[in-house]
Every structure is written in C-alpha cells, then in structure tokens.
Amino acid sequence: MNLVDYIKPENVKLDLEGSSKREVIEELVEHMAETDEESDADCILEAVLKREREGSTGLEKGIAIPHAKCDAVRKLSIVIGVSREGVDFESLDGKPAHLFFLMIAPLSESGPHVQAIAKIVKMIKLETFKNKLIKAKSGAEAIELIRRVENGEV
Fold first, then answer.
1. Given this model, what pLDDT does residue 113 score?
2. With 90 as the cut, is the pLDDT of residue 16 above it?
3. Which CATH superfamily is domain 3-150 in?
C-alpha cells in the first residue's frame, strides 16, 4: 500500500485556519467534501467527532490522525492539513499538533486505513519528513515528499 495512491495534491490543505480541535476537524472534513463530490460531510463529521470522544487521535511530536469509518466514502480517503501555528488537539505529549491526516474508510473496509495509520506513524518518526511537510508550499510538493519517503529516498 502506498499513501500517495489515496492522496491527491488537492487533498492537501496548507495553512489551516482553525484554532481549536473541532474547528480543524470541521475544516478538514469540509475540504474532503469539496475535493470528493461523492463524500457526505455530515456523516464524516459525525463519525470523526464520535471517534474523538472515544479518545483523542492527537499523537506526539505535532501529529494528529483523526479517523473514522462511515459509508460517506467508497474507498479510503485521506486529507492532509497543516497548521504552522499549531492547535491543541489533546495530544499524548500535551503539545500542539501541526500536521493532520484525516482518514475516512467505508464501514466494509478494514485493512487500508490501519495500514495507512501505520505508514504515517512510521514516516513521522523522520524529523526531516515532518519539518519538510510543514514547510511544503503546495499540495504537489507535499505528495512528492510522501512519495519520496515511501520509496526510501528521504
């Protein structure tokens, strides 16, 4: 599985405006709905917020992976968001999150989103990857960076 197969340049939102966990989630969900006409923003938002109530998806080192399953999508969908200022996402280390990977998978699908989470967790251990992704100037640049990391070039 390659993450770049599930993320298009238009699925990257640089300069998130939200200043709270909920605002960021809403902004990412809205962006997903705008870039994928087949998705249902209300279903996605409800599913992600329900998942967050079970436990924060804010990890460590400035990363959050809000995710859920709902039939608002036909296959795994991923949107990346960047907040250079950082947002309190109730992360494990108590630090603000700067990179967000919103993932939605259909209820009938179990493998790809688990594999995607594992890949993201592995990638974010590379400090250079995280810093370069935060500084990306376009969605295409962000996707190219992910492709290079997946191919072991970074």
1. 81
2. yes
3. Mannitol-specific EII; Chain A (3.40.930.10)
